[in-house]
Amino acid sequence: MPFASLRDRALVSVSGPDAEHFLQNILTTDLDVLGSSEAKPGALLTPQGKILFEFLISRAGENAFRLECRTETADDFMRRLTLYKLRAKVEIAKLDQPVVAVAWGSDSTPSQFESAPFADARFVATAVKRFYGGTADGGDLAAWQAFRIAHGIAESGSDYQLGDAFPHDVLLDEIGGVGFKKGCYVGQEVVSRMQHRGTARRRVLIVSAERPLPTSRAELTVEERPVGTLGSTAGRTGLAIARIDRVKAALDAGLPILADDVAVSLAIPSWAKFSFPHEAVGAEDA
Known about the structure:
six-stranded antiparallel beta barrel; Elongation Factor Tu (Ef-tu), domain 3; single chain; Gyrase A, domain 2; nine-stranded mixed β-sheet; 2 domains; alpha+beta; about 30% strand; disordered C terminus
């Protein structure tokens, strides 16, 4: 089973008698359906519905949760959580030097891991496990990035910037990162409106080309007009967040889509439920 140590990840602990109620009221994830051995995606949003912080959340015992996020965002994430704490009986802390690792490809668990695995719930079509603690080190980080890209799983920093994207843009609505049946949370009104009206136009797409793709953040264009932005790449495959109405219009017209000067093809992840719009004209920003 291939694995990789993720040195750019940090763990934030939220624990105490009010921990679940506190998090349920501010995060997009529905903790009522969070199992004991899974890590579900989620976000803390701005009041305008854009992603301020993204994470994977898992249970760490009774009245305790573990939020895995990018190391460079962890301190700001903790400060923002503390602002919402008010009188809630919770403790918020960053775990020192955690070992975060990921394994994929089969149901067996490598001997390098000492901790119990958590199923990475973002991957709906294949088994991916995350491990917290233990002594696993090394692995194949490039293989992990290629695997993540091939399955259409976007991450902040690599594929989009925090503060710039709605949950629908990065498919949190498709991978269990938004609880549409739970009560209110920060930014909930905007996200629910996008869901019920079907107004999401920016989506993660898988990019492929016949030669190596340019670096991340390259603009995708059709006749010099922007349709999206390239994110992570692995050789001739990558991810992009693109306007699916504009991509549909280009496909219907037989116009080439370019990433810099590289001609690319764009595809919806095979597991995703959304589709290109039937009508490609007249769509506006969500």
